[in-house]
């Protein structure tokens, strides 16, 4: 199954939570991203390689200089000499000894950059006159430059006849480049993709806006950031005035571009929206005048109409398409009408129609507190379905839907898994749907340098269940859901807790202190709450307050009761520290009060609980107990700050000594009692014997 990450100054980038504002989530239709829409206006041309760019849009293609140096080695110095020559004749002389293809191209390139078009054209055409096998390395370079030279002859100031001839030359050159690359010619500089943009310039100079948009769209479909940027510039032209609207409505590709621009750039929640209310109204009015059956991009216009509050128009347009975006709009409209069953059906069709791999990029949403969202529509739709299922009391179904949304909405999935479904419901779901990894995986601890690395949501969910089982004391079940290294620590902790059940007081104290030590050091991994109060999701680096639930149309009483029942106790940040301190205090209960170990365990309990809010009173309680019961120790002055290791062996010796002293004291106290008892027994025996004798005499 495919599983579906606003940057704040001096802080982390927090993801969107769909459950934080459920009404907003269900009624608001998110806007897409123009880059994605522009890249999908047309089908990518077949046979051509995609643009070589990184995730940020930077060109990864090697430079011309790099390519030639790798090809020619030491001979590249002759190419440099040719390019720096003053005249064509000097350049040709400097290239003596080079392969003819390389020599012709270098001479033509020098002339091209020097503005000597005639010499450049002659050299490039001579290169292209070579046999096909002799122009395999520079043939498409020469064609591309010939096309660029011809572009400059296309314009308003050029005679129409010459302009037409130049346009035909440029188009033929660029198409020849693409044909050669599609046929297998190497294209290290990415000229095939770039040629679409160059050819689009020809179309623009001839006022062929639809042709230019089509070419830029093909370039964008191959991953070119330049193609997308060019489409954005042209899209802005479509919103200039009424005449531009009529132009846009006259051609399908322009209709699709206008729809993409409206849907992605008319941000109702963004003060930097590029589309004015007047322009938006003008375009939607033009859309209404067109038969939806002939409107290209009708589903995108429907989405734009919905976001603009034109719900009547959105309804009329969305029913004319079975595209996933249209079903999404229908689901929103059904929710506005209170028809939840119909909305659920439309949501299901949208989720099934959106490809799992479809990714619109990232957006910062002002309506969600400027949080960041990776826009994977199938994930978003399933997340909204989860919100709807939760509002209807279908808790496990909501969990399933958010699980399918994966890491994009992990905070929502974690809230459901930790606070809404019961631990048994969660365990059954994980056992059925989230199998353990085939290979043991080590998970970083919060203090490790790699804590920030993204974890797989299935591993996160299994670990969340393991910690929830640990908090519930279900030690036989919990370790199986942890990664390898956390399981090792959990096993040690569980063994220590069980060893604390012995009747040997010192052994029990030692085990309790060991369990407390493990809990204090590894409590986040073993017991930490994913969200509130511990924020395991952020390694504990940030406090995370859970929003209060208020009963209403989207929050049922049953959910509120479940959330209350699953509350972490104690409900304080790093709650496991208080539990660790309590274990140390329980260890002190089993130690001789006058021993060093007694003072050391209470000192450690105070240190473990730290100086968090609300911890001062408990620290003072440990200190007062030490003053009341313990003996003077050399670390009393730094109690709760600097604590030595408890001397359990010394405590054992002291306990034996105290027990022996108690026995002797009891013996000393018992001697007089025993003596008087023996005397009383002797007197009683004498009296008894005297009475027996007297009775015997009386009988005689």
Which short descriptors sum up this protein?
700 residues; transmembrane helix; two-stranded antiparallel ribbon; 2 strands; Serine Threonine Protein Phosphatase 5, Tetratricopeptide repeat; elongated; membrane; TPR-like_helical_dom_sf; transmembrane; mainly alpha
Short note summarizing the structure:
This is Tetratricopeptide repeat protein. Helices cover 60% and strands 1% of the residues. It has 700 residues and is mainly alpha-helical.
How would you describe what is shown here?
The chain is mostly helical and 700 residues long. The chain has 31 helices and 2 strands. The chain has a two-stranded antiparallel sheet. A hairpin with a 5-residue loop joins strand 1 and strand 2. The longest helix has 52 residues, at 648-699. It starts with 21 loop residues before the first helix and ends with a helix.
Proportion of β residues?
A: under 5%
N- to C-terminal distance: 111 Å
The overall pLDDT average reads 89
Molecular shape: elongated
User: How would you characterize the largest beta sheet?
Assistant: 2 strands, antiparallel
CATH fold title of the domain at 27-267:
Serine Threonine Protein Phosphatase 5, Tetratricopeptide repeat
Transmembrane segments: 669-690
Organism: Tahibacter amnicola
Protein name: Tetratricopeptide repeat protein
InterPro entries: TPR-like_helical_dom_sf (IPR011990)
């Amino acid at each position: 199954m495919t599983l579906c990450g606003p940057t704040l100054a001096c802080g982390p980038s927090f993801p969107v939570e769909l459950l934080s504002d459920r009404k907003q989530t269900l009624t608001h239709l998110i806007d897409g991203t123009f880059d994605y829409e522009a890249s999908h206006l047309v089908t990518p041309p077949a046979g051509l390689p995609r643009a070589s760019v990184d995730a940020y849009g930077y060109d990864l293609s090697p430079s011309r200089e790099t390519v030639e140096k790798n090809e020619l080695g030491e001979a590249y110095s002759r190419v440099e000499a040719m390019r720096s020559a003053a005249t064509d004749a000097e350049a040709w002389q400097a290239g003596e000894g080079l392969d003819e293809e390389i020599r012709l191209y270098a001479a033509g390139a020098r002339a091209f950059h020097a503005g000597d078009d005639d010499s450049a054209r002659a050299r490039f055409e001579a290169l292209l006159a070579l046999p096909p096998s002799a122009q395999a390395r520079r043939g498409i370079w020469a064609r591309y430059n010939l096309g660029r030279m011809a572009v400059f002859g296309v314009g308003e100031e050029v005679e129409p006849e010459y302009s037409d001839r130049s346009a035909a030359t440029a188009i033929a050159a660029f198409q020849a480049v693409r044909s050669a690359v599609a046929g297998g010619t190497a294209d290290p500089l990415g000229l095939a993709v770039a040629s679409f943009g160059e050819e689009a310039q020809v179309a623009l100079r001839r006022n062929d806006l639809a042709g230019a948009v089509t070419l830029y769209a093909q370039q964008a479909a191959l991953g070119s950031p330049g193609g997308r940027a060019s489409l954005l510039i042209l899209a802005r032209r479509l919103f200039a005035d009424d005449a531009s609207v009529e132009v846009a409505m006259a051609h399908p590709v322009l209709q699709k571009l206008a729809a993409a621009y409206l849907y992605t750039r008319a941000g109702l929640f963004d003060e930097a929206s590029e589309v004015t209310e007047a322009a938006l109204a003008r375009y939607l009015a033009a859309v209404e005048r067109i038969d939806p059956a002939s409107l290209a991009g009708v589903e995108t216009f429907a989405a734009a109409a919905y976001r603009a509050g034109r719900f009547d128009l959105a309804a009329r347009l969305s029913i004319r398409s079975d595209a996933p975006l249209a079903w999404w709009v229908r689901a929103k409209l059904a929710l506005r009408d209170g028809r939840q069953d119909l909305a659920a059906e439309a949501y299901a069709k949208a989720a099934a129609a959106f490809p799992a791999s479809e990714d619109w990029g990232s957006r910062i949403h002002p309506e969600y507190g400027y949080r960041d969202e990776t826009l994977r529509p199938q994930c978003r739709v399933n997340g909204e379905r989860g919100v709807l299922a939760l509002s209807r009391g279908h808790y496990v179904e909501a969990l399933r839907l958010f699980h399918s949304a994966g890491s994009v909405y992990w905070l929502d999935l974690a809230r459901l898994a930790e606070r809404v479904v019961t631990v048994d419901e969660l365990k059954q779901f994980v056992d059925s749907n989230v199998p353990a990894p085939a290979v043991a995986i080590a998970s970083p601890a919060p203090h490790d340098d790699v804590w920030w690395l993204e974890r797989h949501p299935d591993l996160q969910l299994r670990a969340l269940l393991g910690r929830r089982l640990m908090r519930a004391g279900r030690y036989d079940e919990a370790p199986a859901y942890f990664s390898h290294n956390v399981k090792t620590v959990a096993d040690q902790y569980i063994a220590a807790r069980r060893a604390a059940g012995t009747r040997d007081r010192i052994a029990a104290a030692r085990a309790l202190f060991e369990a407390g030590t493990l809990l204090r050091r590894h409590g986040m991994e073993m017991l930490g709450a994913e969200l509130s109060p511990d924020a395991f999701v952020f390694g504990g680096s940030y406090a995370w307050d859970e929003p209060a639930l208020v009963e209403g149309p989207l929050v049922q009483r049953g959910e509120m009761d479940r959330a209350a029942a699953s509350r972490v106790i104690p409900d304080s940040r790093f709650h496991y520290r208080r539990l660790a301190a309590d274990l140390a205090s329980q260890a002190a209960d089993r130690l001789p009060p006058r021993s060093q170990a007694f003072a050391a365990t209470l000192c450690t309990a105070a240190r473990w609980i730290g100086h968090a809010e609300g911890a001062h009173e408990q620290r003072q309680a440990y200190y007062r107990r030490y003053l009341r019961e313990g003996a003077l120790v050399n670390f009393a002055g730094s109690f709760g700050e600097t604590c030595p290791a408890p001397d359990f062996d010394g405590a054992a010796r002291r306990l034996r000594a105290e027990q022996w002293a108690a026995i002797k004291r009891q013996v000393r106290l018992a001697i007089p009692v025993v003596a008087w008892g023996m005397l009383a027994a002797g007197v009683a025996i004498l009296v008894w014997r005297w009475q027996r004798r007297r009775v015997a005499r009386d009988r005689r």
